[in-house]
Amino acid sequence: MDRSQKTDAVAQLNAVFNEVGVVVVTRNLGLSVAQSTDLRSKMREAGASYKVAKNRLAKLALKETQYEGLEDYLSGPTALAWSEDPVAAAKAAVDFAKTTDKIEIVGGSMGGQLLDEAGVRALASMPSLDELRGTLVGLVNAPATKIARVVNEPASKLARVFGAYGAKEAA
Q1: Whether residue 83 sits in one domain with residue 8
Q2: Do residues 124 and 87 make contact, with C-beta atoms less than 8 angstroms apart?
Q3: Same structural domain for residues 35 and 50?
Q4: Are residues 37 and 108 in the same domain?
Q5: How many CB atoms lie within 10 A of CB 40?
Q6: What pLDDT does residue 64 have?
Q7: Does residue 29 sit in the same domain as residue 40?
Q8: Do residues 71 and 62 touch, judged by C-beta distance below 8 A?
Q9: Same domain, 163 and 139
């Protein structure tokens, strides 16, 4: 990698760090190519990205971003996962770490808040942004559904009474 490629890599990572909601640092302990490909596809499905970056370049890219505290986690064979959704990258990384012992969650950061391994796991246990939106829509729709049911109930009771009288007279 020559100097211009390194400069481009740092600039790209810096742009990513200025846009995302969460960054998770993982330690790779001998992932095979198939496992790495599987992890990347699971990250993409969750709306996250995963990249193995040189620690020195990642530390340079972290400067002047809200994720500066992550520099302490960047030692050894590490990789970075990030997403705009504050839960997606953490959830995908933790779920993959449950299936293999070749990846270890080191820590992360959500905004300016540093997270240790337990913090990342706690973040992963929270519902995603889409799940929260679905819950809110359900809560907003529930009163309208109940009102419609209450308004229609007297009419249906009246129809049942008329139906019963009609059946009684026919018999």
Answers
A1: yes
A2: yes
A3: yes
A4: yes
A5: 17
A6: 84
A7: yes
A8: yes
A9: yes
